[in-house]
Amino acid sequence: MKLGSKEHKKLFCQTFLDSHIHYEPEDLPWPELDSFHLNRLKSIPFWREALTIEEEAGRMVSFFADTIDDPLIRDAIALQGREEQRHGRLIQYLINHYQLDIAPPEKEELPKDIQKEFIEFGFGECLDSFFAFGMFGIARQAQYLPEPFFTIFDPILDEEARHIVFFVNWVTYLQIQSGKGFPLLRGVNTFLSYLGAIRNLVDSFGDVDLGGTQEEGEVNPFTASGASHFMEDLTPKLFFATCLAENEKRMAKFDRNLLQPMLFPRLSKLAYQVLRILPEKNSKSISNSVKTSIT
Ligand SMILES: [Fe+2]
Ligand SMILES: [Fe+2]
Fold first, then answer.
1. Which ligand is nearest to the CA of 54?
2. Any idea which ligand is nearest the CA of 167?
3. Which of 151, 132, 161 is nearest to 230 (CA)?
4. Which of 65, 161, 289, 295 could form a disulfide with 250 if both were Cys (CB 3.0 to 4.6 A apart)?
5. Residue 19: what pLDDT?
6. Residues within 5 Å of ion ligand 2, judged at the Cβ atom
7. How far is the CA of 81 from the centre of ligand 2 (A)?
8. Is the Cβ–Cβ distance between 227 and 250 less than 8 Å?
9. Ramachandran bin of 152, using left for φ above 0, alpha for ψ from -120 to 50, beta for the remaining angles
10. 6-294 CATH pick, 1.10.20, 3.40.630, 1.10.620, 1.10.1220
């Protein structure tokens, strides 16, 4: 199958549409939590950020879908918009159900260049999802919450995996169709877009308090640095190893003819190999090591 061909388009759109699962947040088997686990749930510092991101994504992706002429791509992106809206409803349901004290997010204006916004969002999602897979794996290993909680969130992370696989195939298809398809330019464009996403992540490490609470109006990262919330003594080596293993597990479900996001798995593999040969004292701080690995 040739990248950028009609066959490629059909494969990445149809795979996405066919793998959609039906559920509504209120129908999921939310477990009862004792006060110990309820306090743990309440101490997770990123619920407001997660709600903001999912609600904004739902609006933006749905709006972008309406601007697309190609019916198959439009259907797929409209479905992604509905899935992001459902993620927002799911987090809102969780907040209400467990009575978390979270201020409602502020709504932002949709940008004029909606395709550019969707592309930046897609690259950011590749980064966030890779680290979110690892963070989820760390929290599950640590049994931070009862297992039924992880059973509920597992398919949501699979949905994010579907979004990023769809995205890297769609953006490649778009670049080839618009004549920017030769490999070098595609690589440069992609790398520049990732650099923006990496810069945002590195910036966000600057003022993150790994063990603290969220200030009013402050947006904290909840992927790379957030993992340390769930496990004491988390080392960067274990974090990268978990991200890689979790990513591999989720990516194994996709057709091998589809492209998969590769930059962060490759960077993390490199970081992991470097950390393995460094003396232990050089891998004290997860935030410093993540910074080092991606700058
Ligand atoms: Fe989402
Ligand atoms: Fe998503």
1. 1
2. 2
3. 132
4. 161
5. 97
6. 160, 163
7. 8
8. no
9. alpha
10. 1.10.620
- Nearest ligand atom owner, CA of 87: 1
Going from the Cα of 248 to the center of ligand 2, the distance in angstroms, rounded, reads 18
Proximal ligand: closest to the CA of 118: 2
pTM of this prediction? Answer: 0.82
Q: How confident is the model at residue 267 (pLDDT cuts 50, 70, 90)?
A: confident
260 and 221 in contact (C-beta within 8 Å)?
Answer: no
Q: Span 19-37, mean pLDDT? A: 97
CA count, 13 A, side-chain hemisphere, 69: 1
| pLDDT tier, 18 (very low <50, low <70, confident <90, very high otherwise) | very high
Of the candidates 293, 265, 277, 77, the residue with the CA atom closest to the CA atom of residue 201: 293
What distance in angstroms lies between residue 160's CA and the mean position of ligand 2's atoms?
5
